[in-house]
Batch of 4 targets.
Target 1
Amino acid sequence: MNGPATRQAPSPSERTFTEGEISSRSPSRGRNRGKSLVHGFSVQVAYALIDAIFVCLIGVSVLWLRFGFSAIFGPEQQLLRVGSGHTYAGFFLLYAALVVMGCANQDLYRTPRERSVPKEITKVLKAVCIATALLFSFIFLSGYQDISRVVVLLASAANVLTLSGWRYLKRRYILYRARRGIGVSRVLIVGAGPTGEALAQWLRTNPQLGYSVCGFLDERRADERRIIGSPHELRELVLTQFVDEVFVTLPLDREIVKAMVLEARALRLGLKILPDLYDGLGWRAPLQILGGFPIMDLHWRPIPVVGLAVKRMVDILVSASLLVITAPLVALFAILMRIDSPGPLFYSADRVGLKGRKFRCYKLRTMVQGADRQKEQLRRANERSGPFFKMQNDPRITRVGRWLRRYSFDELPQLWNVLRGDMTLVGPRPHPIDDYEHYSVEHLRRLDVTPGLTGLWQVTARSDPSFDTNMALDLEYIERWSLSLDFNILLKTIPVLFRAAGQ
């Protein structure tokens, strides 16, 4: 565990499964670190707003069908002039509020992925019926005679279809992403007995749940290929297999389970158990049902869905804008590079990103052709401690390349990686494959997030040669991540670039 763990990239372990057994252990293509069974408050509010908007739009559409387009939007606006239009507007706003409350009552804003389509449609039907009944009651008690009951009934029928329809499309979209490995949580199952097998089978045949089984941990039958280790190897296997959650499915010694909970907290890892109280660890833990299996969360961590969505939106807007703005500058650099040395404009190489997934990273070429072949010969002159390689006076760097590196202009093409989603504006720097092969198991934690153009290390200790310092700052960033931290790092990056501290 303490020494370097040299492995064949990108797979940190030789113990794998065939596609027909469990599921491929290749790193997830997902952009996010798993998902939560319980949506955050912000997502629930977004779902409620969608419902309310649809109810209002349906109200306008039904009025148009009932009274004609000109009565609502025409120059004379007859419906609004007689006052009925304002009455209808008020009633449909009330109807939207009642529908939202009905959906909340039916638990439609907390949508577990194992909920079936018929069950969800039934819940929508109940919610709309409750809202419609309350609206009719209000119309009757208030004495309004201008409201057409036919309009309300047509709107209620359309609401059932529409609110069920958009939920069905959302479900299909989630299933499409899950089948492509996007947003999927990688899980280990502790226990290869009948319960563990049944759980793995259920997760495999229900991809909409968003789980990919990496394998089993079990001490009793370690000779089986599907069993990749014992519960005592949890930490190492969680890191090498890029695991998001662990399911405990067999009776274990209580001290082992307690140790697993502590390890899960240290690794910020989801741990679920089929359940036992284990000396009070399960008290007050939320109990869920997953495919008929009772699940108890002993430790869980909410996913900052809105924050990650905003971060991705900022990545897209900033990278797209800068790619356009800096295009003339890149063209100028191309001319200077061509005059200085022969070779292509861009340099591309594999880098290791989120969950160990390889991607093609792009830079402006700053070295002579064939520089990669000389790297191993120069490793003895490496000025950095630890796995990664860096020399201040690297003989492979061209004259123009050295100037580009000082101001980090050579990294401008990585804006394309940010736009594609392989990288982000702020995050740990991606390392080359040969450096990644020298990682220890603990170093793999920096691959829990998407690599970035700049990060905490770049703005606080860029000249520090210690890989341990680099790793500590990367892990500090992962632990402390927030949008405000990203913003502060971006602001601090600007003076760093003007100081020409790049190498």
Target 2
Amino acid sequence: MANIWDRVKGLFSGRGAITGLRDPALVELFGGRMSDAGINVTESTALTCSAVWSAVRVISESAASLPLITYRVGANGARIRATGHAVYDLLRDEPCPGVGSLVWREALYAHAILAGNGYAEIERRFDGTPIALWLIAPSRVNVRRGSDARIHYTVTQPNGGQIEIPARDMLHLRGLGGDGTIGYSVVRMARESIGLTMATEKFGAKFFGAGARPTGVLEHPGRLSDDARLRLRADYERLHSGIENAHRVAILEEGMKWSTSGTPPDDAQFLQTRQFQVSEIARWFNIPASKLRDTSGQTYSSMEAENLAFLTETLRPWLIRFEQELACKLLNPAEKKVLYFEHLVDGMLRADQAARYAAYAIGRNWGWLSVNEIRARENLEPVEGGDQYLQPLNMQSIGSPAGASAPSSTPALVPAPLAPPESAPGAVGDVPPPSAGV
């Protein structure tokens, strides 16, 4: 840092230590780094890249839209929603005043996905119960591990002052990290990939903005004066630069000719490069390229299979990180034994109607789903008698007495038909009518 400050001071002293406002040292001092493609890549500028924006948006929105439930362990390990606990309402409604749960979680995930770390200060009542979770921008937080092996958080306030926040009062959602103290910034790690993507987009914009023509030179057989050269350049750019002047016919006088000096975009594989960079960004964020609206390499046979891959490979690590951090910071030691947090992911795996009904039929016929449980999954009201479970008649428990074997007939889900009534002809014990033959 001292070397950077020396070069910055040289800029104002006139010694030329800084080459310009795009000097890498100056860019790094103010929070960014210049990529080899000549693009300043920071967490903020990276969001101007459509692939990065889409990746962050899809992951954060998908994770934040999943219901986050606080459960209590009941008798025999039953899962019971802890609706009476303060944390249940805090996470469901407003983690901080004026900010809904989805918006709050979406912002926290976006911070963690981009910068590698998402922070929220925990405000507590006198008895230690959390009552608010205040989001903090990652750029304002400095994290270090002290000599006591504990993590310390120093937060820079808007007025320039600094405060220390104990680790127990800082909700810290980390991404992939080296020592578990902080997470790596994906933007910093992927600087060159993101820089190349942004440079390619900028090149395309300039290419079409210049009239969709490659750069080149006007060759004159003689020698032009300085004024003539400047006037010729100005006239040519005025007539042939800009998208509105594309495809105009150029008239060259006095034996001049046009020679192309730039590389045509088709030779540089411009479109292929832009398409490849979308896949490259998808790899950095561990997200299927189809989620970035790139279907060129579609590998999933159905939306259900794609959502399953997205859930297990992309979202699940983030969800588990968040659940464990909530349990670590929002629950006291006694509560940790009986309370836990879990996201409901069934909605993401919701199949089409035919597949759902087939699955319901299997669960109902084999006795592990009731009518009302099925209706609840379809957002329907319960019905009277819908809490009963079926059991196939040819099934029995392991260790049943010998001789109590099930019939070998096809499994029946309802009792066998009753014997015909005594008045019915041909019933057992009936005397054949006189008209019947012997």
Target 3
Amino acid sequence: MAGQFSDRYGRIKTMFSAALLFLIGGLIILVSWNFTTMIIGRLITGVGVGIGLAVDPLYISEISPKSKRGSLVTLSEFAINIGILLGFISNFVFSYFDDSFSWRLMLLPGVICPVIMIYLSCFVMCESPRFLMK
């Protein structure tokens, strides 16, 4: 689905849409009042993350010079793993708070920071030459 969407509307719009889905799903999780609502939010978040993870290496490989392509995609994957580590660290820090709201606090840095970065980067990134040629 992400490949077809990015081929039709562009890599930048697809990444922006993925960030929007990620934000909407995260906000639904943050305000969820029961288990079903939380699962719906998690499903929307998962779709956003999946689309972003599919289009990000594609965009990087299309926009980067041939000599730097592998290292830039590798750095992107490395940054994803650093983000996962930071998520575990924030979960550990927030685990000492009250159980009634600590799980909501755990989601805040993991939702807000990536969405802000993706949103801001969409304004400075140009569309990939391959998409423009199509």
Target 4
Amino acid sequence: MSLQGGPDFRSYARTAPVNDLHPVKYYGQASVTAEASSKDTVVFYYRQMQWVSICGKIPYFDSRFELSYHRKLCDKLTLDLGARAWEADYTSGNLGTSLRNDMLYMASAGLTWLANSHLSFNLAYGANLGRNLQDMANSQYRDYDQNLVSLGAVLKL
């Protein structure tokens, strides 16, 4: 288990598009790993922090909650399952055109087969559901669904 948390002291320039130039924000991060048996591992991950947006204009509050499960089905085959909820809340700035609150829900499943100590193959599926949480006209235009299927090989030399 690992835990971190506490205050995050910020200081923005007078020209920054935020209402409070010297806010105190919350920061938290945790990871808990449980080995339920020699074949089963469950991991929970959590993080919340203020971050600078990719466009560099306003900060956003980043919240992530992840849960993963790893199962060794036999000596050469493993199963991985995962779920994540990730929120990017841009409403702490004061740019009216940049107010956003986006949520991403993810689910994944994968199988990995170890052919030998140097070669493995994997098959995976992932579903990503992007949702707008901001109360606005035509908010559904920001929503999306994405389905990904992958087949891969890893060669260790």
